[in-house]
């Protein structure tokens, strides 16, 4: 979840390209018609892997980086296949901890699992304790990512227990749900990133293949992502309000893959 300004943290030849992306050779991405993934090792992005994160606007596929993170609903298997032909790995952005009224499956969520707004228009927190309801819905979403040929999933809104959700969520509830999300991805051959949820990194670093973080520099939290880097796993990191010269040196020191972005997460970016 992109953090609204002013809020507390809500609380990144072929062999050469593979080395740059920091990946284990993975399954064939399939065709643009949604052929899905074949069996094989999951992708494993390494610390320092460059990336582009675009969740709004017309997709700019010209950014020369090995990893793209794009909206899973908004883009087709053809788009994923085109990025693969250009040598990119592709991450499927989904919200797994909040309901969004603009998604095609919004009607699958019963009212009793939909809580308070999370600060973004049309979005409300989910009762992650209700895995009986949420697991099949999230499984279908992850099936969509797999069938479109994505390499990984970025599940968003993964720290509801630290927010006013309308439900009495605990840290144990969040750990249970976040491990469920990781399992759903891994069962489909997809890598999965832990989004924010800094306090639970020590317990979850073994369950996740990389991390995605927003504004750790602004809030003085970047050191907390060190367990992922020490485990040889990428940390894809974005800042919105700090100028690049305020965080890039520390990002490089810590091994983060850092971008300066605007809140709408369009094509504009500045990489460290």
Unreliable spans are: 2-35
Number of helices: 7
- Estimate the mean pLDDT confidence: 89
Radius of gyration: 17 Å
Task: Describe this protein's structure.
- The protein is α/β, with parallel strands linked by helices and 272 residues long.
- It has a single domain, classed as TIM Barrel (Alpha-Beta Barrel).
- It has seven helices and twelve strands.
- A nine-stranded mixed sheet has the order 1-2-3-7-8-9-10-11-12.
- Helix 3 packs parallel to helix 4.
- The longest helix is centred in the middle third of the chain and has 17 residues, at 131-147.
- The protein is globular.
Defining traits:
single chain; 272 residues; alpha/beta; TIM Barrel; nine-stranded mixed beta sheet; three-stranded antiparallel beta sheet; 25% helix; disordered N terminus
Summarize this structure briefly.
The protein contains seven helices and twelve strands.
